[in-house]
Here is the input.
Amino acid sequence: MISFQSQTITFKPKDVRKTKKWLSELVSREGFELAALNYIFMTDDELLEMNKSYLNHDTYTDIITFDTSDVEEEIEGDIFISIDRVKENAKTFSVDFNTELRRVLAHGALHLCGYPDKKPEEAKKMRAKEDEYLELYLAV
Here is the structure.
């Protein structure tokens, strides 16, 4: 099950059915069963407060991912995304908003699949996986 929700903003990704199918395929290709993915869209300020409260980071971020699975082979989690940050990053990286949003959606799912991105080599591998799944989106 994949759900898209929003806090104080009104937002829903384009092509919800295709996006859910794509994310399900991502999880499957990574060797996991999908239990539940909850994407929650919010503002920069809301995600900043979460970043401070839960991670002790006083910085803006585009995504925070919480793994809620009790079963190693299953993917279950809550993924909080700042739509403000996605818009800003799309401008910064000269890509359209929907492409950047899909990158962030995949990024959260990949974290739940066990991909870290703190070290440079981890970030490089994460970026390659994001690119791979952005290509898959076009084929789904």
The radius of gyration is 14 Å. The CA atoms of residues 25 and 140 lie 9 Å apart. The first strand starts at residue 2 and ends at 6. The beta strands are 2-6, 33-42, 63-67, 74-82.
